Amino acid sequence: MTRWLPRAYLVLVYLLLYIPIGVLVVFSFNDSRSGYTWGGLSLRWYQSLFNNNAMVEAMWNSLWLALSAATVSTVIGALTALALHRYRFRGKKVLNGMLFVVMMSPEIVLAISLLALFLLVGIQLGYVSLLLAHVTFCLPFVVITVMARLSGFDESLPEAARDLGASDFTMTRTVLIPVIMPALLAGWLLGFTLSLDDVVVSTFVSGPSYEILPLRIYSMVRVGLKPEVNALGTLLLVFSLVMLMLSQWILTRSKR
Amino acid sequence: MKKTLLSLSNLTKQFDGKTVLDSLSLDIYDGEFITLLGPSGCGKTTLLRLMAGFEHPDAGTITLSGEDLTGTPPEHRPLNTVFQHYALFPHMSVFDNVAYGLKMEKRPKEEIRERVEEALAMVQLQDYMRRKPHQLSGGQQQRVAIARAVVKRPRLLLLDEPLSALDYKLRRTMQVELKRLQRELGITFVFVTHDQEEALSMSDRVVVLKDGLVQQLGTPREVYERPANLFTARFVGETNFFPGEVESIHDGTITVDVFGLKRTLRRPDFPVREGQSLHVLLRPEDIRVLDPADEQGVAGKIVERNYKGSTLDSVIHLEYGTEVLASEFFDEDDPAFDYRLGEPVKVSWVDGWEWLLPEEADESVNEDALTDA
């Protein structure tokens, strides 16, 4: 008894986690209009998904936004982490603490304050406002990921590079960045995922000119769940699995 | 007359108000193997980092063959460093690590390949070119670090405790190998260590440092046999200190009272006067352990004996309260030579094997100064 009980518990936990996802995947291939009865295998919801122009556009918008937000925040975040790591300056602690404030504060607060800011400055709600908002909440995660890597960084590596004739810039390009690459990649992926599934902040700062996927799905659900959503969910699942495997592959390769 | 390669003059360096180097001057000769020896915190690593250009002196100048290097950044100094923890680039192969410095010089590909292979052959690692550093053992990583530093044919090689992370046996092998490399390459080596044995066995000259000041500069033999002060005497090797009092002064000799023995010793370089107290220094291997019935010598008894393979090291507690360390070689005639604890003996030495030092105002250079040695 003592042997099967923990196993059964483990199985139960995993079932609870994965059954809904499994159901979603299975029902994305369901021919029935209803979400609850099985009507045979079909790809009709995938077809209808790709015929839904608004949906496809929202998907591309979301991907493009996530891509650009992750990239911009990785660049700014990596430079911030380097500055915090390398230099001693006034207000360093405050700057460091402020990153955590952004990370810890409720998303709704960030959303409202960003909206107020954009209205005040006169930035049109759309791609630019979304990008700025997403970069803002992705940034601390990137900085912290990169700083964690830098804290374990052998300080004599840059010195060795300089000693062998590399200028500060060449050293950064040929030694520093390659060594912290896994952290940059991890930070980028984190930013990408955070941006892709953000709802709260996006709800506030998006405009009619640039509709993104989570908001599109949300509005669809309100008028009634269509099995198209299952197909979309399955595609996103496959996409994130591929991304995850890709990142793992890059990480293990860079270690070798 | 030896040619000076690197000249350090009046170097001063402070960190957060704490003086690490105090107006230190030192001339390093072309082609020599010079060792900076001292306990941790003595400034030896800082001195090396000033030479490499990783730190800048608060005052003083560094010149290489007459050319002022003081403000030159590390990438423009014709010298290279072997780091304590090797600092190999983890994302590059052994080949790329060694090639790094030549790539920075924008050498043609063919020349880079040739010189890298040559450098790796020198450290017997030509078969490991495609490996990544983490696939090598500590000793191999060390050799890659050396190859990477010498491939640029620097005028001067700086080595920052390069052997401290290796185990004892490997360290001995690398010591021999480093000496061989230095002879073959003809490059000046500046070696930093806190291991006095390493310093004595490898160097042409040893610089003993303490508190940012040079305590003594000389050949290993000079430093060991004729220490300039109590610190050097205590730091380099084991030493017995006998209190002596000058009884009378003659032409080339003085008569000194040591534990009631009247010994006529060579007159030291420092000024002496009658009645003055001084230290009589004797290395453990200079101590003679005699039969208790012997006429001369100071009586005591054995309180500890350590079999060391080639020597028998014993501690003798003198009747005067002092403990004496003696190190005797095994005699072929008497392989079973040994002491038992508590055995009464007499202790003496051969005249002329002692070294005399005056008493110092600051006599506190005791064991605590040696804890990290």
TrEMBL record, chain A:
InterPro entries: Bact_Polyamine_Transport, MetI-like, MetI-like_sf. Residues 59-247 form the ABC transmembrane type-1 domain. It is a multi-pass membrane protein. The chain crosses the membrane at residues 9-29, 63-85, 97-121, 127-148, 175-196, 229-251. CDD domains: TM_PBP2. It is found in: Cell inner membrane; Cell membrane. Keywords: Cell inner membrane, Cell membrane, Membrane, Transmembrane, Transmembrane helix, Transport. GO terms for biological process: transmembrane transport. Pfam families: BPD_transp_1. SUPFAM superfamilies: MetI-like. GO terms for cellular component: plasma membrane. Required for the activity of the bacterial periplasmic transport system of putrescine and spermidine. NCBIfam families: PRK09500.1 (NF007047). Belongs to the binding-protein-dependent transport system permease family. CysTW subfamily. This is Spermidine/putrescine transport system permease protein PotC. The lineage of its organism: Bacteria, Pseudomonadati, Pseudomonadota, Gammaproteobacteria, Pseudomonadales.
UniProtKB/TrEMBL annotation, chain B:
Keywords: ATP-binding, Cell membrane, Membrane, Nucleotide-binding, Translocase, Transport. CDD domains: ABC_PotA_N (cd03300). Its EC number is 7.6.2.11. GO terms for cellular component: ATP-binding cassette (ABC) transporter complex. Residues 6-236 form the ABC transporter domain. Pfam families: ABC_tran, TOBE_2. It catalyses: ATP + H2O + polyamine-[polyamine-binding protein]Side 1 = ADP + phosphate + polyamineSide 2 + [polyamine-binding protein]Side 1. GO terms for molecular function: ABC-type putrescine transporter activity; ATP binding; ATP hydrolysis activity. It comes from the Bacteria. SMART domains: AAA (SM00382). PANTHER family: SPERMIDINE/PUTRESCINE IMPORT ATP-BINDING PROTEIN POTA, SPERMIDINE_PUTRESCINE IMPORT ATP-BINDING PROTEIN POTA. Part of the ABC transporter complex PotABCD involved in spermidine/putrescine import. Responsible for energy coupling to the transport system. Belongs to the ABC transporter superfamily. Spermidine/putrescine importer (TC 3.A.1.11.1) family. The complex is composed of two ATP-binding proteins (PotA), two transmembrane proteins (PotB and PotC) and a solute-binding protein (PotD). This is Spermidine/putrescine import ATP-binding protein PotA. It comes from Marinobacter pelagius.
